[in-house]
Design a protein that fits this description.
12 strands, alpha/beta, four-stranded mixed beta sheet, 309 residues, 2 domains, five-stranded parallel beta sheet, Rossmann fold, 11 helices, single chain, globular, N-(1-d-carboxylethyl)-l-norvaline Dehydrogenase, domain 2
Length: 309
């Protein structure tokens, strides 16, 4: 199976490092100094309690944004996993159109809602999967990625009636990569569950300037829960069959514990002076709340502060 990873950021690099030890044939698209390191010298894979692993660049084919897309790779990927930021989605969608085989599957791990609808418009519902991940990762410096929190990759149907058996090969490869794939029968619930975690964790950790574990402090955790449940109200208004609030709260606590040493992507963006994904996260909750006439003051506050910051 040839897998294309579009976006060599923290999660993209984690996937590259894990998948490099499997039978998959990897094609990686990235930009900047980090992508240059992946091309010339490979990737240093860091895991707490284990020796650093140096992975040779011969384990993948690297495509640099700065050099354009060669014709030789057109329609060459059986599966594409988009891992870039929401702000890069439009650009990466054009890359995916060039790389994906006409019968291939595509999914995105980008934060926020609405991306899958755009994939369906481009590729058709029969080629689009819903996917999320709770793995934590960050890049200490170019050419390195640290696996900061063990999680899962969750995959399910979106608008087409895919079954676990129809994507069996992909799930097997992800399992071979120790990425803990899990099939979910309801893709909308899957996407909303990740959205609720993101709106609760990312902006608060970003403002605190601390690792995810800082949100476990009781008063801060209660604030994160309130933000999350405000989003859950919107999901239920859309007809999404979420778990009970107690289950959602336990899930949030569990993710924070598992990724306690991880610096969330929004904090990484703030520190680097990059555009954050707040528009696709908390601001999107506010937009959807307005459609139902449901107030979302906590998400509005966080969205306004992050955008001004």
């Amino acid at each position: 199976m040839r897998i294309g990873i579009i976006g060599a950021g923290s999660i993209g690099s984690l996937l590259v490092g894990c998948l490099s030890k499997t039978s998959a044939n990897l094609l990686v698209y990235g930009r900047g100094l980090h992508a240059a390191h992946l091309t010339a010298s490979g990737l240093t894979f860091l895991v707490d309690g284990k020796d650093d692993v140096e992975i040779s660049p011969s384990e993948w084919e690297m495509l640099l944004e700065e050099q354009g897309l060669p014709e030789l790779v057109r329609s060459s990927c059986d599966t594409i996993i988009m891992t870039g930021k929401s702000s890069a989605f439009a650009e990466h969608l054009e890359v995916a159109k060039h790389l994906l085989h006409q019968e291939g599957f595509i999914c995105t791990l980008a934060n926020g809602l609405g991306h899958e609808e755009r994939l369906v418009q481009t590729f058709g519902a029969h080629r689009v999967l819903a996917a999320t991940t709770t793995h934590g990762a960050y890049r200490p410096e170019p050419g390195q990625v640290k696996w900061a929190g063990l999680g899962e990759i969750n995959i399910g149907p979106f608008m087409h009636h895919h079954t676990q058996n129809s994507v069996k090969t992909l799930l097997q490869v992800l399992d071979e990569a120790s990425l803990s794939p899990r099939w979910d029968d309801d893709g909308r619930v899957l996407l909303w569950n990740k959205m609720l975690l993101n709106i609760a964790i990312n902006p608060i950790a970003g403002l605190l300037g601390k690792e995810n574990g800082a949100l476990l402090e009781p008063n801060i955790f209660e604030s994160a829960v309130s933000v999350m449940l405000e989003g859950a109200t919107i999901a239920r208004a859309e007809g999404v069959r979420l778990d009970e609030d107690d289950v959602l709260i336990d899930r949030l606590r569990n993710v924070l514990e598992k990724t306690s040493t991880n610096y969330c992507s929004m904090l990484q963006d703030i520190k680097a002076g990059r555009e954050t994904e707040i528009i696709a996260l908390n601001a999107e909750i506010c937009r959807r709340g307005e459609m139902f006439g449901i107030p979302t003051p906590l998400n509005e506050l966080l969205s306004t502060i992050i955008q001004n910051l």
